[in-house]
């Protein structure tokens, strides 16, 4: 393998920065492009579990990750008047084991970026406009007007991947809508939360808020059932109107959260969907993370899939000496892990968003009883076990 083997990575989120880390470590020369003007900060809290923890440890970043815990302690269910229905330990409710790490997504991405920026070229405010795959290289046209050739191209640009559209075909061929939408953004901490989470559940719509360590504000998150909605992924005003319409007339603190979203610097809105593909590579182009196998936010495993996927992809590329046979090995090695983790999404979202008033009443009664029962830890242990099995459904190779 030539020491100057060039790999273009589109997307500087967790899958992209992690792939860059490992490719550089294996002797490649990765270049990362990102449409945004800088590494994306903020975001929501995410979990690192199982094999993904091992990847972070092998990157020598686990100690730094553990310096940025969310420290969320309690998860409480409230009714439309804000009265407490049930309260559970946040780790148990989130399916976490003791060694698992919960961190803000932006913190994790910044940590990996800081670990790579001295060795990896990052180009911000840049995106791919065209890809021409040849036998020995890939010609890439950029939106800035320049063009370059690379040996390999990796799309790590999310569920709405531009790389995937250019090299594999339209998004509609691969995106599977689960029938729900999610929104999240920063809000003032007017409830005075101290590292805790409050959740309100109504028929077909859930709203929650939480505060984390080191953040004087809070996050508001919404998940609701809906038929497909028409909007542009960059039309924030349209997305906010859709969210307001979906939650019109809801109680609790929902109206205050909706008032705050206009000023939120980090408003995010999207369908809860999965990306399902038979192959994650086409010639000299491969996909990783959400671009290839988005499991949806409901899975709780999106970040872990990105970390593990990037590690395996870079490792198999290196094992193949930069040959595209590394892509095929990557697909074989990761296939079962992706399949198991994707199954979590459709089942989890049905527990997060309850469709009918009867389901809500039954769930609230059960949660209220469970939170007072001496055996509640055994019940939450079942949640933890299911997620743990998915998080450890791969044995990582040493590359």
UniProtKB/TrEMBL annotation:
One example GO MF annotation: FAD binding
Matching Gene3D superfamilies: D-Amino Acid Oxidase, subunit A, domain 2, FAD/NAD(P)-binding domain
InterPro entries attached to this UniProt entry: FAD-bd (IPR002938), FAD/NAD-bd_sf (IPR036188), FAD_aromatic-hydroxylase (IPR051704), TAT_signal (IPR006311)
Pfam families assigned to the protein according to its UniProt record, in alphabetical order: FAD_binding_3
UniProt domain FAD-binding: residue ranges: 6-165, 273-322
Protein name per the record: FAD-dependent oxidoreductase
Annotated organism of origin: Glycomyces buryatensis
């Amino acid at each position: 393998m030539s020491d100057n083997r060039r790999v273009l990575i589109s997307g500087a989120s967790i899958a992209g920065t992690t792939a860059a880390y490992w490719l550089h470590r294996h002797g490649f020369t990765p270049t990362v492009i990102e449409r945004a003007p800088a590494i994306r900060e903020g975001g929501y809290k995410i979990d690192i579990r199982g094999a993904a923890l091992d990847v972070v440890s092998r990157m020598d970043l686990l100690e730094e990750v553990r310096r940025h815990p969310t420290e969320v302690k309690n998860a409480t269910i409230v009714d439309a008047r804000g009265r407490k229905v049930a309260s559970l330990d946040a780790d148990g409710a989130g399916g976490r084991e003791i060694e698992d790490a919960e961190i803000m997504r932006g913190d994790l991405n910044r940590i990996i970026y800081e670990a790579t920026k001295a060795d990896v070229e990052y180009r911000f405010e840049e995106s791919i406009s065209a890809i021409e795959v040849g036998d020995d290289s890939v010609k890439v046209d950029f939106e800035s007007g320049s063009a370059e050739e690379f040996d390999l191209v990796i799309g790590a640009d999310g569920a709405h991947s531009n790389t995937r559209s250019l090299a594999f075909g339209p998004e509609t061929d691969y995106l599977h809508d689960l029938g729900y939408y999610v929104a999240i953004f920063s809000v003032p901490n007017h409830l005075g939360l101290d590292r805790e989470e409050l959740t309100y559940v109504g028929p077909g719509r859930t709203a929650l808020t939480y505060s984390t360590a080191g953040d004087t504000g809070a996050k508001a998150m919404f998940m609701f059932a809906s038929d497909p909605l028409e909007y542009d992924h960059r039309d924030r005003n349209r997305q906010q109107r859709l969210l307001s319409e979906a939650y019109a007339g809801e109680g609790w603190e929902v109206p205050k959260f909706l008032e705050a979203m206009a000023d939120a610097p980090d408003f995010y809105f999207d369908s809860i969907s999965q990306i399902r593909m038979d192959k994650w590579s086409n010639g000299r182009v491969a996909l990783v993370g959400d671009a290839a196998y988005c499991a949806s936010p409901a899975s709780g495993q999106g970040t872990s899939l990105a970390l593990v996927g990037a590690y395996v992809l870079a490792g198999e590329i290196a094992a193949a000496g930069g040959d595209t046979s590394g892509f095929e090995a990557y697909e074989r090695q990761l296939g079962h892990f992706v399949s198991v983790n994707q199954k979590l999404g459709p089942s989890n979202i049905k527990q997060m968003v309850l469709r009918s008033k009867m389901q809500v009443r039954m769930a609230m009664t059960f949660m209220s009883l469970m939170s007072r029962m001496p055996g509640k830890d055994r019940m939450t242990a079942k949640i933890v076990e299911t997620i743990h099995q998915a998080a450890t459904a791969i044995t990582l190779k040493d590359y």
